[in-house]
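Worked example

This section walks through a single chain of length 152. The input is the sequence exactly as stored; nothing has been trimmed or padded.
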Amino acid sequence: MPIHVELVTQERKLFEEKQADMVIVPAIEGEMGILPRHAPVLTTLGFGEMVVRKGNAEERFAIYGGIVDVRPDKVVVLADTAESAYGISAEKAEEARARAAKMMAEGTHPDHNRQAALELRRAEMALKLSRKMASGSTSKLRILSEDEDAKS
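Given that input, the structure is written out below as tokens.
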């Protein structure tokens, strides 16, 4: 029995797989592995990596907060923001990290300082995932939707 996975942000549905074997999400208490027939759970997400496995293929995403609703046959991730690991630009993430670090070092208004801290955390997470993907320590096989498969 497979598990249906949806990853949704405020802007759009980022990913959907109806036949996944396993999902790993960055729950606030630590990584949480989800298999089909998992007990129902509703929990908060932190910053981290989400992995969807189907056979030998994987999809990876950087998740920046949100919630996850786990049911025995479905996982719905409602992320504050998220991006595909395959679409992260290491150069852009490094630039964002440098800008945020500079803002924090210069000292800004407390409201802006909190935003800079969040941006720094996001950029560091994106860089970590980008390096992991570049190192080849993860699966290179992706789960492709029918639309993506037709483009190939």
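What to look for: The CA atoms of residues 41 and 107 lie 40 Å apart.
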